[in-house]
Amino acid sequence: MDTKILISVEQLHRHYGHILAVEAISFELAQGEVLGFLGPNGAGKSTTMQMITGNLAPSSGRVRINGIDLLDEPKRAKAEIGYLPEQPPLYQDLTVDEYLYYCARLHRVSKGRRSQAVKRARDRCGLGGTGRRLIGNLSKGFQQRVGIAQAILHSPPVVILDEPTVGLDPNQIRDIRTLIRELGENHGIILSTHILPEVQATCSRVQIIHRGKLVFSETMQELEQRLTSHALVLETRKPCSAQHLEAVPGIQRVEPLGETRARLQFEEDNPADAVAACVASQGWGLVELSLDRQTLEQVFVDLTCSDAPAPDGVAAV
Fold it and tell me: How many domains does the chain have?
């Protein structure tokens, strides 16, 4: 069965006067997918999120939410979205239930379905015993849960979460990550965050925006393959010889990192055993022999820390 496309973004542009903040962004979000949306400050990420949620009109391009054109039918399209901004729109002097009932009315949940909708959202977000507690008396983690609960009250196909774990302690972060993964089973989720381990822990796909353009878009499976190392880091007690190491079967290139350290590039099969045998036969003394694994952080830095100037007229907001 074909996967249902919940968000379709086509050639999205946004100008601020003569400044081009977002340029030709296109992507799709499918049901059951959790998309990690990454970018450095000023890359155009917030502008893109605002256009997708209908809070900012694009200069050109098209956004469809669950098949509904956001510009042609904004009310219908927005009803398909649940949104948690970076600062959750919470009323500190209301109880959890009072706030969620209020949000249910805003989401136009029918009067006969409100109690069921509030209970369902509360239970899904682990808020079962907090209904009568003032939001202002809850911990930061539970307030984030209330924010997510208001976003899913009306059972929207699309849920957009902007920095949902900012300011949380490690246990609270783990709980929110688990919740996001569970929500991703039935919704399409866009997760905007600066916390790279959070993306690897919760997302099925990752996109990186830089200077208003999408510069990276891969599934986590494709990313894991990209991060699979084809290099070994070798450290020996005595100086090692690049000439001897290059003669080891499977080694493509030897990059000296000092007299006793080297990075060994290889093709397919890991030649660690042969390298260790070479070190032993030469009497260099093995200190370390390990895979030189790349990380998502390295990919992010490589793509977004270029010192090259942006094209004329292009800037990110």
Answer: 3
